[in-house]
Amino acid sequence: MREIVTIQIGNYANFIGSHFWNFQDELLGLAESPESDQVFKNHSLDMDVLYRTGETQQGLLTYTPRMVSVNFQGSLGSVSSRGSLYNQIQAKNMDVVTWKGRVTTHASEPLRRNLFLQNLSEEEQGIMGKANDLDNVNNNSPAEIQDKDIVECLESDVQYWTDFSKVHYHPQSLYELSGLWADIQEFDNYGLGKEAFCGHQHGEEIDDRLRFFVEECDHIQGIQCIVDDAGGFSGVSAMFLESIADEYPNVPVLLYNARNPSLHMDSKGRKQAISHYLHDAVSFSRLSELCKLIIPVGLPSLSGSRASQFLCIKDEKPYHSSAVYASAMHSFTLPFRMKQSVPSAESLYTSGALDMYGTVQMLAGQMRQNMVTILDVAIPAPSLSADQAQQSFLGNLQPLIPDISEDVEDFHAVETMNIHGAVTSGNRRASINEVKDAVESAYDNSVTRPKFSHLSASTCPLPIPLPFPSIFGNMVGQHGELLETPISGSSSRGSLEVHSIPMAIRLRSSTAVLPFLERKLGNLCRFGIERGALGAPLLQSWGFGKDEVEDMGEVLSKMVTTLKPYQYSSDSD
């Protein structure tokens, strides 16, 4: 087994992580349910890659994510930082014998659990289970109404990422940054994160939690890190990743750099805009030095993008947008946990398994030496039917970051694609061979094709768990099929109407990312490096000297030069 340890740093990163782990929990449940579709029972995924087995003090076996979450203090809502599986009785504080005066204790009321979490707790305690066995017919209607109430509750009020999480976490997983509260309004730049991290003993404590998970791995294949890079958590992430690079130099780190679209909705003055531009450049430069492959995601308006053509997203809701990014993350990490077939046999359920190291070498290794990838997604993926093949898996793949060149001819492009749960004519589940043939046909009919492309495929679609938001449009059917006519009655559909969807994603190393990189380099030069730069004092207040800023400029310049070696010189003015 080749294990993966997951790290989630920042509020939005944990929103993404919450959806991601809900997908995994749904797969585990469907694999064991006698009523579920065979495609979920035969998913051929090794869940031990992401999960660990354990045992409570009472001798109960546990199966929890191999994950470390870092966030504000108070960001867990009604959930305890020790989780709910390992309920240990906290020792009472000893009396302070040096104080002779009166002692008063002030304690805030615990947050009330929402309807979803209340129902989850009742189900786990078995309160409803016995009653359900008495009369299945009479129980159908109440169960459906209850689920509807839960969905409506989540749509109207999700404040914390734990509000919609249905997963049990290990006590070592959830870490809150003491002294940094969730209601802080100005934690909006790299410098603040760096200061907050260095000013406490956070580093050592987080390192210990990561070490707990890494040291129990037999053969770790890598660390996948989701970072909320829009504010101070990018500084926190950089400090943590520096420690990881020192302690685990041979373990590849895959960085999922995420940004909440709701942050783009606030109007900014010139001073704030300069701070924003410099933060973007500094964050990207520093974080890229601390990983092997970086996957930036975060459209200014996800709802208005072509990636959402079959969705109904509300950008102001992190609960909505994070579900899209989590779906993409689930899809591109599937090859990391596909069960390997023996060389003489070909699996009926999966094909094209890769580990994290192989993916890094393919996209950022000797063939291209570019570590910044573009993540394209089709959610849901259209049918594989012959007359739609080219449109389905090339024309419908849309990038999840801005400033990307369209229709660029890059004869050295390298990519890896993953398609899972695809359907074909008559909404029939497509076989692995049908997926391969359709993709090959699409490339044959395309004007350009990459220098190298790797295809991974799985018959297992993306399962839609109950707490998934109602973001599907009225052209999406029960199994994610795209309908010819819209469903009347509602513009959006959720987990009660859509149970699974086919997905197609592509990670590519291409010159199409150049405008994205050049914008960051240009802003750093203009506002931070050039003589009289308006943002130079701000960078100094973040703890960066002139030489450090110039070094960050060189990092970004090298990224651009790698993709455009004959048209750009880092020495030019």
From TrEMBL:
InterPro entries: Beta-tubulin_BS, DML1/Misato, DML1/Misato_tubulin, Misato_II_tubulin-like, Tubulin/FtsZ_GTPase_sf
Keywords: Cytoplasm, Cytoskeleton, Mitochondrion
Subcellular location as annotated: Cytoplasm, Cytoskeleton; Mitochondrion
Protein source organism: Solanum pinnatisectum (tansyleaf nightshade)
PANTHER family named among the record's database cross-references: MITOCHONDRIAL DISTRIBUTION REGULATOR MISATO, PROTEIN MISATO HOMOLOG 1
Domain DML1/Misato tubulin: 156-337
GO cellular component, as recorded: cytoskeleton; mitochondrion
Primary location class: cytoplasm
GO biological process: mitochondrion organization
Domain Misato Segment II tubulin-like: 2-121
Signal peptide span: none
Cytoplasm is among the record's keywords: yes
This protein's name: Protein misato homolog 1
Family designation: Belongs to the misato family.
